Fold this sequence. Notes:
InterPro entries: FN3_sf, Ig-like_fold, Short_hematopoietin_rcpt_2_CS, TypeI_recpt_CBD
Main location: membrane
Mean pLDDT: 83
Radius of gyration: 48 Å
Order of helices and strands: HEEEEEEEEEEEEEEEEHEEEEEEEHHHH
Strand content: 35-45%
Protein name: Interleukin 5 receptor subunit alpha
Structural class: alpha+beta
Number of strands: 23
Shape: elongated
Largest sheet: 5 strands, antiparallel
Low-confidence stretches: 1-14, 361-402
Keywords: Glycoprotein, Membrane, Receptor, Signal, Transmembrane, Transmembrane helix
Subcellular location: Membrane
Amino acid sequence: xxxxxxxxxxxxxxxxxxxxxxxxxxxxxxxxxxxxxxxxxxxxxxxxxxxxxxxxxxxxxxxxxxxxxxxxxxxxxxxxxxxxxxxxxxxxxxxxxxxxxxxxxxxxxxxxxxxxxxxxxxxxxxxxxxxxxxxxxxxxxxxxxxxxxxxxxxxxxxxxxxxxxxxxxxxxxxxxxxxxxxxxxxxxxxxxxxxxxxxxxxxxxxxxxxxxxxxxxxxxxxxxxxxxxxxxxxxxxxxxxxxxxxxxxxxxxxxxxxxxxxxxxxxxxxxxxxxxxxxxxxxxxxxxxxxxxxxxxxxxxxxxxxxxxxxxxxxxxxxxxxxxxxxxxxxxxxxxxxxxxxxxxxxxxxxxxxxxxxxxxxxxxxxxxxxxxxxxxxxxxxxxxxxxxxxxxxxxxxxxxx
Length: 402
């Protein structure tokens, strides 16, 4: 009889739990949804505690409960958003729930495969208190050549459009740079919303949204004031932490060492900003250092770029070869310079004192040396000469002259 009474009481309580009413989903900012509902006016409390069980179905599943009748969630909305809510009634140590009430937001409009792809973003602390933002992406495969993409970022309540774009060969925006943003350095687990929409005369461009954890995309600065020295067989290195609001103990480092004599390479992981290592003093070394935040202060982000290469030590064999090559280069250069100067002097001298040209012969030579002309017999008009040479042939005259 007691069990039957409890069962009847349970049935009565279950039927008394009513679902919320007027459940709505409203886009209140970029990638932000306001979920709102009202208690069922027919719900009897009877000294019971009422809570609400909320389930986000898409784009990312999430479950939580609240005593309030509203909730704000940040999510990428380009493919739509759906959620449901129900009433939870707590009475006499028992928790009973109502039926679910569901709401949906449709996907953002636009043609398929026109959204950007491969979106990647990085933040960077340029100076204390200022954070830059750099994003890059690829145009959608279905995006026409006249597509114009436009990027917006939201951080907390601040929303801003990109001021500087880089373009591809079709003049489509594919990169964005904010030299200064409202992103606060040193914050942990804050979300950065990036929204990219577009326009085209040939197609409706579908917007795209992506959420970035501030920790995950912060690219750490390079360590500062790096000092490397070689004392006998000890390599000594010191540096300062990168520009950052985080303290020294929040950083880890990688030390990239190359022995230029043997070719050996090694990367050493360090947790402090100083280092000492036993090395071969007869070798020459190249060193680079980079930094990242460690898990002590927050989740690691993006490693910094490597520092400029620093060289220490001297390789004796390499030095002697270098001297020989230097001397050969100098001697060769001097020889070529001497030859060039010599040629130039000769050229200038020939310009200043050109050779005297041989004058042309404008008068007939009175004594021709042409053998054939000398053998020619005198004409019939030369009667006097012919009378003196009567009886002699032309050939006899030639023999007597030559």
